[in-house]
Amino acid sequence: MESNNSQNSIEEKGKENETKMEELLRFKSFKTLIDNKIIIKNPYFDNTEYFINAIIHNKPHTIRNTKHPSFEMTGSINDLIIKSKLPLFIDILSLCGGKCGSYTLFFTFLKKNYQIIRFHDSADFENIMGFDGLFQYIDLISYVKPITIIDVYRNPIERSISNFLHSIGRNYLPNYINMNIKDVIHFYNHVWINKEQIFPESIDSLYTYLNIKKPKELDFENNYIHQQHNNITIIKLKFDDLRVWNKRLSKIFNTTIEIEPSNVTKEKIHFKNNDFIDDFKKNIIIHKTFLDKVMDDPNFNYFYSPDKRKAIYDEWINRTF
How confident is residue 8, by pLDDT bands cut at 50, 70 and 90? Predict the structure, then answer.
């Protein structure tokens, strides 16, 4: 009975902390966290300090400037990694582009008591840590212990639209709710798309750094990559398969993995009217050149079969201008 009570207590604390974790996303720096005296004691992650380092974004160099005021940008990359106190005893690194399920993976494995950290790519790592050293960091961890890197591929059109909706909901376009939907779509096609990183840095950069090759062709029956290189395991999922991630990951990790959806655009508290999302998606059109770029993209052609590529093209060709 005591064991059940203890487990229930942990789960209750976990749920309470989920709310606090989501609240943290609205803060822009460690200084804000300190000033507001927000403290997390997370039963699933025994070093809160590193957890906060991993999830607080939109703050160039704040970790270096606030947490490590005496941290000087000198020495080798390994020296900088040690100085920055990045955790080396982690199990999983979520390395997904924005709006590709990185928070879903993060909270999923956090609840399973895995030590996990997340970055979108090497630029995100540099933006947060203040130095370019993501791949060296992965290398250093792999000398200490085995590490699993998880990336996710998402249809670039869907990802771009999702990222746009995510961003305007966070005050990128503050007056969107009072705009005509056609004007918002015009903004997407003529302003946003010119600034958007249409094809986020993929795990291919890690392959290049490690001097290994990904499988020549994707096995469309399994529909994911699972590769081993020395102490590094590489997993590449597809966002389209989100509903069966639990089966895929349970098989790979040889334990039951239940997916914990997180960072879902429609559930964000800063959206004043969720009908706007449905209206936008119903009316969105894209530039023909954007569709052509997607169809020519090597990763798009790698991760989708000819039939699926044709289906995506047919879906969007009548929604282009």
Answer: low
Domain span at residue 111 reads 75-317
The 232-238 sheet, strands edge to edge: 116-118, 92-94, 147-153, 232-238, 225-229
Domain count across the chain:
1
The answer to whether residues 85 and 235 touch, using CB atoms and an 8 Å cutoff, is no
Which alpha helices (DSSP H) does 145-244 contain, by range? Answer: 156-168, 181-187, 193-195, 204-210
* Token pair belonging to 202: 């993929």
**63 has a pLDDT exceeding 50:** no
Residue 225: inside a domain, yes or no?
yes
Report whether 88 contacts 144 (CB < 8 A).
yes
Let me know if residue 136 belongs to a domain.
yes
Given a contact cutoff of 8 angstroms between Cβ atoms, the answer to whether 185 and 161 are in contact is: no
- Note the pLDDT of residue 83: 73
What is the per-residue burial (b if ≥16 Cβ within 10 Å, else e) of 111-143?
bbebbbbbbbbbebbbbbbbbebbbbbbbbbbe
Answer yes or no: are the C-beta atoms of 38 and 56 closer than 8 Å. no
- Kindly report the CA angle at 306 between 301 and 311, in degrees rounded to 5? 100
Q: Is there a domain that residue 16 lies in?
A: no
Q: What is the dihedral of CA 37, 95, 245, 292, to 10 degrees?
A: 120
pLDDT digits (tens, 9 = 90+) for 216-230: 999 999 999 999 999
CATH number of the domain enclosing 142: 3.40.50
Cβ contact 73:131 at 8 Å: yes
Write out the two tokens for 111: 């609840």
